[in-house]
Amino acid sequence: MIKGLPQNARCLERVEETLHNVSVQDMPWKRIVESLKLGKSDITPCIFKTPERETFLDLYGPIAMLPVILVRRDGQDIHLGNIKDFHGVFLRGTSLIKDYTTKSMRVSETSHIRNILEIIRNGRADYSLMPGNFIEDRNTAGLSISVIDEIPLYIGISKKSPQKTLIWDQLSRNVAIVSRNISISNR
Asked: How are strands ordered across the β-sheet holding 143-158?
């Protein structure tokens, strides 16, 4: 169903297998958040932990680790320790900009992954950071890719859900908690 993700990161599929009565609704993210805050929706699978989300969600997990990759042209000596010296290009709106760069760093944004790969390949930017599944089935010829971090993914359960205890119990019996696959020294 979700191409390019490790099996344990296919959160929606895992939730549907565990919570057989679940009704999946496809809504814009802002409506999902509002519905969870009000207790109109019970859960959301595969989310990142943030202090704001913890105000209205109980987070089960982490249930998966999403790899963060560094993409650069072949032969370039770019790593997390020296990205400040290079021009980065990111998918518009990604939280990875805030997490891995500073205001003094040269960073651009674009709306499509294919644009990011071409911009790097053509030398108009030096690197990008993105979730590993973003490059699945894409032309990465001439590019080097390495995993530099992992982001824990959680299942969020609305604190106002009348089913909260039942959902938590079912998840804890059927969905394993995972730990990091890479060491901190790779970050």
From this structure: 43-47, 143-158, 57-73, 127-131, 88-91, 107-110
Q: How far from the centroid of its chain's Cα atoms is residue 25's Cα?
A: 20
* Three-state secondary structure of 33-48: HHHHHHCCCCEEEEEC
| 24: three-class secondary structure by DSSP | coil
Spatial neighbors of 26 by CB under 8 A, at least 6 apart, are: none
10 Å CB burial of residue 158 (0-12, 13-18, 19+) is buried
Which DSSP string do the residues of 83-151 spell out, in sequence order? GGGS-EEEETT-THHHHH--TTS-EEEES-HHHHHHHHHTTS-SEEEEEGGGGTTS--TTEEEEEEEEE
User: Could you tell me the pTM of the whole model?
Assistant: 0.75
CB–CB of 132/146 below 8 Å?
no
3-state secondary structure of 184: helix
pLDDT at 132: 86
Say how many Å lie between the first and final Cα of the chain, rounded.
30
Q: Are 126 and 76 in contact (CB under 8 A)?
A: yes
pLDDT at 183: 57
Whole-number pLDDT of residue 4 = 45
Give the pLDDT means over successive 10-residue stretches in the chain (187 positions): 46 80 81 93 88 94 90 96 96 89 95 95 97 87 93 93 93 88 53
